[in-house]
UniProtKB/TrEMBL annotation:
Keywords: Cell membrane, Disulfide bond, Glycoprotein, Immunoglobulin domain, Membrane, Repeat, Signal. It comes from Anseranas semipalmata. Residues 181-200 are annotated as: Disordered. The gene is Cntn5_2. It is found in: Cell membrane. This is CNTN5 protein. One of its GO terms (biological process) is homophilic cell adhesion via plasma membrane adhesion molecules.
Amino acid sequence: PVPTISWRKVNGHNPSKARLRKSQAVLEIPNVQLEDAGMYECKAENSRGRNVFRGQLQVYTYPHWVEKLNDTQLDSGDPLRWECKATGKPRPTYRWLKNGVPLWPQSRIEMVNGVLIIHSVNVSDAGMYQCLAENKYGTIYASAELKILASAPTFPLNQMRKTIIITKGQEVVIECKPQASPKPTITWKKGDKALRESKR
């Protein structure tokens, strides 16, 4: 006699969107997602007995960004840490480009699992960077610009006071806040002699 047919997902529930057609002989899953993957079982039985067939559904996906890069501005000498993160099946691998040219590990440059680290950036590191995440189904790109600030110390005009008048016995504060990149070292002199810290 014509068998009755039933379907089940082994170790799980049938997707709620799944449809059965042709007297339940066809299981149809529209818009397949990663969670639909698994082992499916088709069981056919009639008065003479039953038979079972199992098949594995594997779902693969194009890479998709979870975390992208942001344009970054750093002082010369600062460290850079950029991370780009993507999902996908198979799991994506990562590559880096700088100004369109492949970037390779060097003494100051590390690249591990989508993380780019540059120890102590300098002006030569400035440029446009791209992170590529790829699996056998496709490649996606994330881009960001790295700007390096490098300037000799300059003093804002509002700090250029030639004379400070103060009453004897009071406290005086003289500010020294130059604009510079990287951060400058600061020394003080009184006349030609270097100032040393004391109780006062």
